[in-house]
Amino acid sequence: MTTAAAIGRSLRTYYAPGHAAALDAFLARFLGPGELGFDIGAHVGDRTASFRRLGARAVAVEPQPRLARLLRLVFGRDPGVARRAALVGAAPGEAVLRVNSANPTVATASDAFVAAAEGAPGWEGQVWDATLRLPVVTLDALAAEHGRPDFIKIDVEGYEAAALAGLSFAPRALSFEFTTIQRDVARQCLDRLAILGYRAFNACLGEEMRFIHPAPIDAVAMAAWIAALPHAANSGDVYASLEAARVSGGAALVPPDPAGRGARTR
């Protein structure tokens, strides 16, 4: 599959009929009008688009040049979206992005991620066939430039712990992707979030927009749950919040109006 065809597949997946409404209903517990969300690993921008529909400003960070161009086409005229073509890591500088031309969804700056995928069931045929040396920015630097976010979504294919290492404050809520081929990275992320002060966690599997746990659990319990998942679960997202109600398994918590009014594509 060519890169263009792979991007087309992502667009069909993440902008499928009904996807936007379901995503907005889920993310409304985390963001509201006038707030700020960081979309780290923005890919084709469906989360950024949801942030905007919810009335929040967005910072979309995507290192892959073709996807960065797509985000410019989609959001270039929107003053509520700031775009950054960079990796997000522990310290400013440069790093090497390993690109999977046939599946840009799994581009990664983590050599360990590529090694873990090799030979793993469900990851057959994945080939990282190109490299790009790109600038690295930290979450702290993005916050200094654009303001402290209310919510951060991180989906950077095995580089999540590195991204969180560059965060020194606790936003109200955030999420990070985990995979069953790198459960150790999830544990590192949970350890970092516990240090930052998070005590309430929940999770979704694949692209499902519903929480697995009926009530929030702590970092230790979340690590144990991820460790016990079958390999076939593949991936999901962990959500952490300083306000436990936002990661409750009940209905979405919609912030008050200030004016008073399943599996990922591999």
Q: Which structural category do the helix and sheet elements fall into?
A: alpha/beta
Helix content: 25-40%
Rounded radius of gyration (Å): 17 Å
Please report which band the strand proportion falls in: under 5%, 5-15%, 15-25%, 25-35%, 35-45% or over 45%.
15-25%
Note the quaternary state here: single chain
Largest sheet entry: 7 strands, mixed
CATH topology descriptor = Rossmann fold
Which residues form runs of ≥5 with pLDDT under 50?
A: 251-266
Please report the number of helical segments.
9
Distance between the termini: 12 Å
User: Which word captures the global form?
Assistant: globular
Question: Could you state the order of secondary-structure elements as H and E?
Answer: HHEHEHEEEHEHEHEHEHE
Biggest sheet strand order reads: 3-2-1-7-8-10-9
CATH architecture: 3-Layer(aba) Sandwich
Domain tally: 1
Description of the structure:
The protein is an alpha/beta fold. It has a single domain (3-247), classed as Vaccinia Virus protein VP39 (Rossmann fold), CATH 3.40.50.150. It has nine helices and ten strands. The chain has helices at 3-14, 19-27, 46-53, 65-75, 111-117, 139-146, 160-165, 183-196, 219-228; strands spanning 36-40, 57-61, 81-84, 87-88, 93-99, 130-137, 151-154, 173-179, 200-205, 235-241. The strands form two sheets. The chain has a seven-stranded mixed sheet with strand order 3-2-1-7-8-10-9, with helices on both faces. A three-stranded mixed sheet has the order 4-6-5. Strand 2 (57-61), helix 4 and strand 3 (81-84) form a beta-alpha-beta unit. The longest helix has 14 residues, at 183-196. It is globular. The relative contact order is 0.15. Residues 251-266 have low confidence and may be disordered.
